[in-house]
Amino acid sequence: MGLFLTLFFMVLQFLTHLAGKQVPRLILVTLLLFGGLLPGARAQSFAPPRVLAVQASPQGVAVADLDGDERPDLVVSCSYANTVNVLLNQPGAVGGFALAVSYPIGSFPLRVVAADVNDDGYPDIVAALQNGGGVAVMLNSTLRPGTFLPAEFYSTLGDPRSLAVGDVNGDGRPDIVALNTLGGEAAVLLNLATTPGTFPAKVTIFATGGRYAVGIALADLNGDGWADLVVCGGGSGRVGVLLNQAATPGTFAPVVTYSSGASYPQDLAVGDVNTDGRPDIVVATGNDGRVAVLLNAAGAPGTFTAPVLSEAAGMRGVYSVELGDINGDKLPDIITGNREFLPADSRVGVLVNSAITPGTFPLTATEFESGGGSTHDVALGDLNGDGLLDVALVDYIGGKAIVLLNTGTFLSAATAAGTARVQPYPNPARDHFTLELEAFSGARNVQVELVNPLGQVVRRLQLNLPATAPSLRMNTAALPAGVYMLHVRGLSTSATARVVIE
To answer: Is this model's pTM higher than 0.85 or not?
Structure first.
């Protein structure tokens, strides 16, 4: 270690000499301690991966208490085996789960959902069958909860890759909305009132704004009490919003599309990330390696602001995303499944929500080894009963399910990022204001955003700041009068301020 430190200081001093700057020794030590160069210096926020055997080519995973023992279990879809595997939570077993039990489900299952579709108190299994042309429903056995009856097949008139389950027509029963990939169509199957847990042969199709749709979610986006539909995908990089029509619940208005900030988004999650009571949209951008956050507009609920992007995967792609409180501060954080095929490299990315300015996230995610080669889906749940949110994922290439147990060190990581004070002047402003950014001196990739009363970003700058006396002049001459929020984010420091424009 002594030789390592000596060489490190020699190289760093040489580089700073070339740059004509002198780096204080305290900064060097800080870089060593908190940059992860010293063994054990970086807090480990997940325990080592627990690998669980499943059948070939797992592509989807869901977490739910299947057998009623108050412990979350796993459901894994195995595409080439044409099965789903059920792994019951069993604390004394290797990896914390019993051996997988396989159930045939149909041709090439992809995404899978666990939900109680027949109202018997036990979650059932619903899977999208891309090659089968529909969805499969496996009801949980009431005689032996955690075991499942043979699958029933329902056509979606397409090739569904993903699906969502929720009550879209207000009758209290969960319905199925499947996303046909090539046609980019949403197929709605309403749960039958006479025999809950069964679905009609008739399917209603809604256009989602383009082909190659892959991500889907249901949520009440505009606050009218009805579940709306959000989709993503296609070469246009779109996010499509279809609002449920209150006059005819279970039918949807024509799609309104928004940019995802990427060419081919792969997945999305919906949740209130900025605590304003309205669901927002978070998109996994695929090969772009980023996540995009689209905030629900304050003045027009059910419409969305321009995407704010964060790096989530380095050189890898981001193909799945979930929202959950990973650090225990009651705010939803972003968890992603990241992968690269050649060479096979799989990680889990975490972007912790800012406690100071909820709805803002670091510009770069923290990545963790997943224990696999190709993460195709992630799911969240407290898998070991310690009150912390854990991660379950599936490794397509390795043919395994993997559990990452939360060690609780995200609690300290949440407060590690610094908060700073910025003071715009003059304030109130007319045609411009100046912002002193001493707290961000010398920082790279500093993002400055000005957000209007509708929640829309009206000014956005990406800056590399000088080491001394950094400041910014922002032109506001064309902006309407009102109260605006100013957000400044660096890699480890963030700040917010209110600006009044007259």
So the answer is: no
